[in-house]
Design goal:
Blueprint lengths: L1 H14 L6 H28 L2 H18 L7 H22 L5 H18 L12 H25 L4 H16 L3 H7 L10
Helix pairs in contact: 1-2, 2-3, 2-4, 3-4, 3-6, 3-7, 4-7, 5-6, 5-7, 6-7
């Protein structure tokens, strides 16, 4: 379904433009429709388990950071979709079912480790879609670190008011940070773009 909709939209755009790059537009639409499918499934599961608020927090925190920090793409779309759903839905479900939340020290420690991963590995691009501009890489890394620092600060501020939200706000983006590591690329069968600074 994702491939079909992406091709339809790309064919339409390319037919209306002389300068449109088919592969770039197709890739963009595939990512868009895949992300919409993940969000739809996560929201439906959230309604079933009555954790809509936590899942919305997870979606927002994950997608904002992933936009700047990047990450590997699985070889197969189905794996990518399943992993995205697990990453977005999993922390919210675990917090909801167990009632376990992070304490201040744990939250801060995880946040510092995440920022360290981002400092070392962000933006996590691929050999197929590299970010080759040094200025762009520095900008994306800086924004990733700032976003994660904001999550940590919000998590600490919300800890006594809404500990479940605080935990989901830190745990969900942590997967983005962890998946920036080269080992994640090997697990997903994805080649990381190697720069001179890497």
């Amino acid at each position: 379904m994702v491939r079909y909709l992406s091709r339809k939209m790309t064919n339409y755009i390319v037919s209306k433009s002389d300068t449109a790059d088919y592969d770039v537009i197709l890739y963009g639409y595939e990512l868009l429709f895949q992300e919409l499918l993940v969000i739809l499934i996560a929201l439906l599961l959230a309604l079933v388990f009555d954790i809509l608020g936590l899942v919305v927090i997870a979606i927002i925190s994950h997608d904002i950071l992933r936009n700047f920090a990047g990450g590997p793409h699985a070889k197969y779309r189905a794996i990518c979709i399943m992993m995205s759903i697990i990453i977005i839905f999993g922390p919210a479900l675990i917090v909801s079912l167990t009632g376990q939340t992070l304490g201040a020290i744990s939250l801060l420690t995880i946040g510092i480790v995440d920022i360290g991963f981002l400092f070392k590995y962000a933006p996590a691009d691929t050999a197929e879609k590299p970010i080759s501009s040094r200025e762009n890489r520095v900008r994306l890394r800086r924004y990733s670190i700032i976003i994660m620092a904001i999550y940590v600060l919000l998590g600490e501020l919300l800890l006594n008011i809404a500990p479940s939200i605080s935990t989901v706000l830190i745990m969900t983006p942590s997967f983005v940070c962890l998946f920036s590591h080269p080992i994640a690329y090997r697990l997903f069968g994805c080649a990381k773009y190697i720069t001179k600074e890497s």
